[in-house]
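FAQ
Q: What does a multi-component entry look like?
A: The components come first, one per line:
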Amino acid sequence: VRVTSAQSYNTLLSGIQDIQQRLQQAQTELTTGNKINQLSDDPSGAADIVRLTANKSEIAQYTSNAAAAQNRLQTTDSVLSNVQNVVQRVIALGEGALTNPSAALPSVPEIVSLRDQLVSSANTAFQGAYLFGGSVADKPSYVVQPDQSVTYQGNSEAVQVQVGRAATLQIQVPGDQAFSGSINVFDSVKKLSDAIQAGDKTAIQTQVNNLQQYFDSVSAVRSQVGALINTAQNAQSDLQSYELARASDQSRVQSADMAKASTDLTQAETSLQAALASGARISQLSILDFLP
Amino acid sequence: MSTLGSVMNSALASLTANQLALSIASNNISNAQTPGYVRERLNLAPSAIGASMFSPGSGVQVLGIEAIRDQLTSARLNMETSYKAADDTLQGKLQDIQGWFDDTQGTGLLSEITTFFNSFQSLSLDPTSSTNREAVKQAAQALIGAFHSQSANLDDQKQLANQGVATDVDKINSLTSQIAALTKQIQEQETPGAQQNELRDQRSELVRQLSQVVDVRELDSTDANDTYVLSLAGSGQTLVVNGDAQQLTAEAGTNGLYAVKAGNNDITSAIGGGDLDAQLQLRDQIIPNYAGQLDQLAYEITQQVNAIHSGATDLDGNTGINFFQPLTGASGAAGSIALSSQVAASSRQIAASQSGATGDNAAAIAIGNLLTQRVFSGGSVTDQYGALVFNVGNDAANAQSGSDEHGALLTQLQNRQQSISGVSIDEETVQILQFQRSFQASAKLISTVDQMMQTALSMTGGAQ
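Then the predicted structure of the entire assembly, as tokens:
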């Protein structure tokens, strides 16, 4: 076979270009740490990354939902704990009225103001939305009517949010469970203060019993809220481990094998050196150098 | 009987032949790096003039200067050049296009899609919050903006490819006119046995350049008719017949896209190979395919979100409001997707409530959950987008490997052609030495014959 000098240079040139390409590939992998640096490096891997990235942002959203739910439930719990304190005080005042009738009348104003406190607790807003109105979020949950009765403006819907593809979490307790269920705490307190004013001991006793019962029902609601807070926390830690799993999936698809990339780099470097050295030799070998 | 005169003549013929050989070697060396140059060789034969039984030949005879060509390798080389040029163009363009869908670099639509649906999940935490509502609106505007810019980018690339078609047709016309002019010159000047090598080299180089634009076939018959025909590989449409070039035209249709025509014949679909083929593929298949997938995605998002949204209640108790401006069909959806006038006017009109109560979030959750539900034609919305990403990446990878493959074949063929037609400096140098020696020997012969003649003359002079 005839070999011409242009042929040698062509071979050298295409060889060098080839090696340069491998060198660049290895270098990009090493500097970015990724083996997929453009879609064409691994199209199906790139599609996997789309799926995994979407999955991660979905998990991040569920996590932030669960965290917000937890916040809200904790606020609900502290409001209910406060309600229990108030109710306890009312019960104490009612019992005081039974044992010490002289203290009965002076306690009435306090009971009235405690009822106002209960109404304002029931109308607590969390970030602008009323906590105890069911899904009626833009109106105060309870309103005091001119005749001093208190009416519920909300509904019995328990609002839920998504904390997983198939997992929802209740984020609030409607007022008709927390304040005006089988016993309406506002009515009960009103009746108690009326009974004290009227000196009706039987009625006082009835209302004290009712309030005791209400206190217990709030305890039950609080333990329900506690369970929900627990669920929210568990959901967050579950999501965190999903997120780690997705991150490791993604890294498996996307991350470069550093050992392999640096070996490739060294190999390409060696090949390039050899190619360049042989290139330098080509021009040295000519018959012209041997003629006198 | 041979005479001193005839020896002198044959020595002279040898001097001329060797001189010619030297000048050919010199020409070869000068053109060693000239693209398209084919090495030449002097064809010599012993001259038989005046030869008889008792006389030697009358020296050397120059038969002609031959260019060492290999038609088959040239033809294959031109073909590979076409394929390589097509893949190179595709690869370059797809490299650009795939950059816009690269979500690992944050350029794709993915983050806009997930942010949009997730914003509804955030809204579900507190549907009355104006902050949450504005966030939904902003996420939707970002998604719409991303669809618009992707669709505009694809359209730009399509228009560029369309311009490329017109430019390529111009290039073809300019090259074929030059080829026809050269052919005319060659046919006028060539006589049997004396080929116009330089003109032929120039023509081969032009055909090679033409091969980068479109795949062509060359028919160069060396018979008595001496016809030269250059035609398109795909349709067989002739571009050059002897000294005449058939001009192609790029005619813009009603959609502004150029059709390639030869006379009244539309040969657009029959074009194969070269940059022109790549531009046509990009314009008519590849980019419309991506744009179609993008449109379908935008259309389905509009449909799915509207279906839930229009059945839900906004903050002021209104129902039947669309979130996106309803679209009549998928065609052009990515470019025309927009917020409905109501939602654009006020974020209060975003319908999050299914029951009608302001704090109800069921509709917001239902829209947010669309991110993962497999209700889209390609699975979930991200699956469907992922399919587009895969297509773009796969096309780019195929163009890349095609270009590498054809590049390797091209190098191989170039080497073969070089091996046959290329100039070897060493070989030429050796030839120069050979011819130099022959020249010296012939010169020596002349001076020897001269001395012999003088001797003969002095013999007569001495006798007197």
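Q: Is there any commentary attached?
A: Sometimes. For this entry: Strands of chain A lie at 125-126, 129-130, 142-144, 150-152, 160-162, 168-170.
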